[in-house]
Automatic annotation (TrEMBL):
It comes from the Bacteria. The lineage of its organism: Bacteria, Pseudomonadati, Bacteroidota, Sphingobacteriia, Sphingobacteriales. The chain crosses the membrane at residues 86-106. Keywords: Membrane, Transmembrane, Transmembrane helix. This is Uncharacterized protein. The keyword Transmembrane helix applies. InterPro entries: Permease_put_prefix. It comes from Daejeonella rubra.
Length: 203
């Protein structure tokens, strides 16, 4: 749920509209809520600084996994000139970020993974058909990549895992984690329920 805030503490309207324009619906509420909470804390200390930091944090989410499909934008903006005016600068930035990130593969092995025990609160299908987990007491987006999930699906995992305690291995952050604001996106590399390995990228 988005925090209630005073009128003078509202994040910059145009930046917020920009976030809602490009961000997938299945991630938007959590991302917007987290960034708004950060904005409120910073606004109380330094209102001017809070505005540009909010804009910078929104820009950090211009990453492939958070972008709406192109067809959604065409439904929102039927006028071609509006589409081009809004989309072209964004497309350039996104392609640049994608090119950079493509050069930095995540090595899926135990040496490059951290371990934790957590209780599963929710499992759902996220952007790009990733499987996204909500874990009790933990903020952020924990996900199994659509590239490596094989035959797993969110519905079956939801029935099995909600309320269960699981062991998770997740990829340790590298340099590009600096681009993420407080809400992190964390790739799961192995998932265990008791002695059963439900999912693993380890070879």
């Amino acid at each position: 749920m988005k925090p209630k805030i005073k009128m003078e503490e509202n994040p910059p309207k145009r930046v917020l509209q920009f976030l809602r324009w490009f961000c997938r619906e299945d991630y938007l509420e959590e991302i917007e809520g987290d960034l708004t909470e950060i904005f409120i804390r910073q606004y109380k200390r330094n209102p001017r600084k809070a505005n540009w930091k909010f804009a910078w944090n929104v820009i950090k989410y211009l990453r492939p996994e958070f972008l709406k499909p192109l067809k959604d934008h065409y439904l929102m903006y039927k006028n071609y000139s509006q589409i081009m005016k809004l989309f072209m600068p964004i497309a350039f930035i996104v392609l640049f970020v994608m090119a950079i990130l493509s050069l930095i593969p995540i090595k899926a092995n135990k040496e490059n993974s951290a371990e934790m025990i957590a209780n599963v609160m929710a499992v759902k299908q996220g952007g790009l058909n990733d499987i996204v987990f909500s874990l009790q007491g933990l903020r952020g987006i924990y996900y199994i990549s659509h590239i490596t999930k094989n035959d797993l699906n969110a519905d079956s995992l939801s029935r099995r895992l909600i309320g269960q305690t699981v062991k998770i291995y997740y990829a340790k952050p590298h340099f590009w984690a600096l681009l993420s604001p407080t809400t992190n996106t964390i790739q799961i590399t192995e998932l265990r329920l008791g002695n059963e390995v439900i999912f693993s990228e380890f070879r």
